[in-house]
């Protein structure tokens, strides 16, 4: 299985300040379609996960533009330009290039 | 809007069987992979299996192969995961999601306890 690692695993942030989460994969995530299948998810306590970003840097509908993502190969980053209270929860990266798809361990973001 | 609606919470005893469901709406259910993700209490997300409803092609994560069975009824726009003999370690929240993680169900809590 492709192993996904994230850092940090826990992040205390200040409202209005930026935050950044790193994700690394044990294999390159380029699929046979030429796309890099790396997605980011946010899970608030007691809620289902919600996809924020797909194929590295594409923002899902309704996701605020304070969220951005980048990366290639095996190294990826999710950034929040100015953290808001609703951003608390756990952030997961997930690779979908190789089955089984695998998630990172999650990064818990707290204010 | 794409929606996935899962069946309700279950409380079972070890050794019992169980089948939970996930009904899709708002999209062509037949042409998108749909799968199941486990989240054990206080833990992260794990893919279990996925299925392509159009032809019932299935893929299992090695950790879950032989432990669960995934299926789909395209006439009902519904996917299922079932256990033939539950264990206490199957206690978890189970989510259905489209293969790309775009849409998620609300989760089905399964508790296995004697």
Helices and strands in order, then pairings?
The complex is a heterodimer of chains A (111) and B (114).
Chain A: E1 4-7, E2 10-12, E3 19-25, E4 38-43, E5 50-54, E6 58-59, E7 67-72, E8 75-80, E9 89-95, E10 102-103, E11 107-110
Parallel strand pairs in A: 2-11
Antiparallel strand pairs in A: 1-3, 3-8, 4-5, 4-9, 5-6, 7-8, 9-10, 9-11
Chain B: E1 3-6, E2 10-12, E3 18-25, E4 34-39, E5 46-52, E6 57-60, E7 69-73, E8 78-83, E9 92-98, E10 108-112
Parallel strand pairs in B: 2-10
Antiparallel strand pairs in B: 1-3, 3-8, 4-5, 4-9, 5-6, 7-8, 9-10
Give a short synopsis of this structure:
Chain A has no helices and 11 strands. Chain A is mostly beta strands and 111 residues long. In chain A, the strands form 2 sheets. In chain A, strands 2, 4, 5, 6, 9, 10 and 11 form a 7-stranded mixed sheet that branches. Chain A has a 4-stranded antiparallel sheet with strand order 1-3-8-7, with no helix packed on it.
Strand order of the biggest β-sheet of chain B: 2-10-9-4-5-6
- Spell the H/E element sequence of chain A: EEEEEEEEEEE
User: What is the residue-averaged pLDDT of chain A?
Assistant: 95
Helix content of chain B: under 10%
The unreliable regions of chain A are none
Radius of gyration of chain B: 13 Å
Largest sheet of chain A: 7 strands, mixed
Brief descriptors of the model:
heterodimer; A: 111 residues; mainly beta; 7-stranded mixed sheet; 4-stranded antiparallel sheet; 0% helix; B: 114 residues; 6-stranded mixed sheet; 48% strand; globular
Describe the structure in your own words:
The complex is a heterodimer of chains A (111) and B (114). Chain A is globular, with a radius of gyration of 13 Å. The termini of chain A are far apart. With 111 residues, chain A is an all-beta fold. In chain A, β7 and β8 form a beta hairpin. The model of chain A has no long low-confidence stretch (mean pLDDT 95). In chain A, strands 2, 4, 5, 6, 9, 10 and 11 form a seven-stranded mixed sheet that branches. Chain A has a four-stranded antiparallel sheet with strand order 1-3-8-7, with no helix packed on it. Chain B is mainly β and 114 residues long. Chain B has no helices and ten strands. In chain B, the strands form two sheets. Chain B has a six-stranded mixed sheet, with no helix packed on it. A four-stranded antiparallel sheet of chain B has the order 1-3-8-7, with no helix packed on it. The model of chain B has no long low-confidence stretch (mean pLDDT 96). The interface between A and B is medium-sized, with 22 and 21 residues.
């Amino acid at each position: 299985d492709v192993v996904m690692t994230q850092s940090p695993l826990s992040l205390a942030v200040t409202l209005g300040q930026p935050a950044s989460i790193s994700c690394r994969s044990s294999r390159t995530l380029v699929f046979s379609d030429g796309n890099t299948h790396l997605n980011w998810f946010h899970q608030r306590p007691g809620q289902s996960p919600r996809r924020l970003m797909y194929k590295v840097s594409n923002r899902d509908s309704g996701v605020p533009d304070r969220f951005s993502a980048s990366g290639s190969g095996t190294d990826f980053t999710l950034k929040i330009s100015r953290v808001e209270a609703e951003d608390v929860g756990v952030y997961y990266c997930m690779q979908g290039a190789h089955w089984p798809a695998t998630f990172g361990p999650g990064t818990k973001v707290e204010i | 809007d794409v929606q996935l609606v899962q069946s309700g919470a279950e409380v079972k005893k070890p050794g019992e069987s169980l089948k939970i469901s996930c009904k899709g709406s708002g999209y062509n259910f037949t042409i998108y992979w749909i799968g199941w993700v486990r989240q054990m209490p206080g833990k992260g997300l794990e893919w279990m299996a996925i299925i392509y409803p159009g032809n019932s092609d299935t893929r299992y994560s090695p950790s879950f192969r032989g432990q669960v069975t995934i299926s789909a009824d395209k006439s009902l726009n519904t996917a299922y995961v079932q256990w033939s003999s539950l264990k206490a370690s199957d206690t978890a929240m189970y989510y259905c999601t489209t293969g790309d993680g775009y849409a998620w169900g609300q989760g089905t809590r399964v508790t296995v306890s004697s």
